[in-house]
Each structure stands twice: as C-alpha cells, then as structure tokens.
Amino acid sequence: MNLPLVAIVPVRGGSKGLPGKNIRPLAGKPLYRHALDQGQAAGAELCLLSTDIPELLEADHGPAVRALPRPADLARDDTPMDPVLAHALAALEGPAQVVLLQATSPLRQVDDIRRAVALHAAGGFDLVMSVTPTPASILKYGMIESGRFQPVARAEYCFMNRQSLPPVFRPNGAVYVFDADWFRGRGRLATDNIGAVEMPEERSWDIDSAEDFARVEAIMRS
C-alpha cells in the first residue's frame, strides 16, 4: 500500500549555540524554510511545522504546511526528539509514511530524501536514516564497566591496524523515514532494524554555532 508522505520539521525558538538560528536567513531564506521546501520537493503532501515561535505560528506558509503549536515543556534544550514526534503525530490522522527533516541540516538534497523514502517503502526496515563516513578508529574504543574494558564493537578490532578496520558511518541527522503507525505504537525511534542512505561528509553539516552557519552559507553560495 502506498502511504501519503508527510514531512515533520521541528523548529524550536531557543538555541544556546546560536540564538534564533532556525529563523535566521540562510542563502536568501530562513533556515527552517529550506527543510520545508526540500520536503515538498521530495513529494510530501503535507509538512507539519512543530514550533514554539509565535511569528511562525501566525505566518502563512502555504496550503501544504500546517504549523503546530509546541508546548513549552517540549521546547527545552534537553527535550529529546521522541516526544516532539509523538506530539506532532497526534495532530495527524490515519496512516502515513513520515520523513523527519531537521532544520539544522540544510545541505541535504531532495535526492537524499527520495532515496531514504524509497528504501523504507521497499520494506525490510523499521527506520531509514541518512549517514556519513566517520573515522573507523572508533572501533578501537570501549567503555569501562566495574574496571573492565568493554569494547564498543568486536574485541579484535582493538588490536587491528587502522587501515584494516571496516568502514564506519555515523547518523548525520539530515533524514529519518518511518511509518506513522509504527511510531505511534512504540513512541520511540530506537530500533535494531535500521536502513541507511549515505551522504557525503561535505553535505552533512549540522548547524549549531555562528561558525557553522557561516560555513554552510559559504558552501551553499558556492
């Protein structure tokens, strides 16, 4: 069954790293608008804008965008994403394929979203997310539990040459795709059944500071 595609774009007003970053102009339009436009270009029939910013709640974002007032207790610095998604999906009736697009990852491309949506639609994965290559040396790391070194992966990786380690990827926060009813039934994204679409490191910037903002804008303008 082909489900309607719905994009969720969380846009919080507060930011310690760069106050007002989500509504700050980036390459000709507010940062959050890039996520909305990318979601619509990728085929989202509806974009849910979850925000606590009064001016965004009052603005006209177009017929395919619905602004949802986010409660203050879901707009703190330490608020995890799961309850924000649950609040947004409570305003959505019926089944849907959902793509989460965080405003702070504007260098994603429409094709990145489409690839993730297609992989999820093909079945086999609870969640599909975008990833980017990261140094494999992390496979040598571990945690100490009651004085015992516990490797993060296989023990043999701790003793291998860096060049012999397998490729490693990290989530870059740009794209997450999942089924609305699947999330409603469990209330969290964490799962052992995750598909991945790769994005290059140069497009995996997450904006957290003024320096990040300037770097991303320079990339977009070039």
CATH topology: Spore Coat Polysaccharide Biosynthesis Protein SpsA, Chain A
End-to-end gap: 41 Å
Main CATH class? Alpha Beta
Classified in CATH, the superfamily is: Spore Coat Polysaccharide Biosynthesis Protein SpsA, Chain A
Rg measurement, Å: 19 Å
Question: How are the SSEs ordered, and which strands pair?
Answer:
Layout: E1 5-11, E2 25-26, E3 29-30, H1 31-41, E4 46-51, H2 54-58, E5 65-69, H3 81-90, E6 97-100, H4 110-121, E7 127-134, E8 142-145, E9 148-151, E10 168-179, H5 180-186, E11 194-198, H6 210-221
Parallel strand pairs: 1-4, 1-6, 4-5, 7-11
Antiparallel strand pairs: 2-3, 6-10, 7-10, 8-9
Q: How is this structure best described in words?
A:
This protein has 222 residues and is an alpha/beta fold. The termini are far apart. It has six helices and eleven strands. The chain has helices at residues 31-41, 54-58, 81-90, 110-121, 180-186, 210-221; strands at 5-11, 25-26, 29-30, 46-51, 65-69, 97-100, 127-134, 142-145, 148-151, 168-179, 194-198. A hairpin with a 2-residue loop joins strand 8 and strand 9. It has a single domain (5-131, 169-221), classed as Alpha-Beta Complex (Spore Coat Polysaccharide Biosynthesis Protein SpsA, Chain A), CATH 3.90.550. The strands form three sheets. A seven-stranded mixed beta sheet has the order 5-4-1-6-10-7-11, sandwiched between helices. A two-stranded antiparallel sheet has the order 2-3.
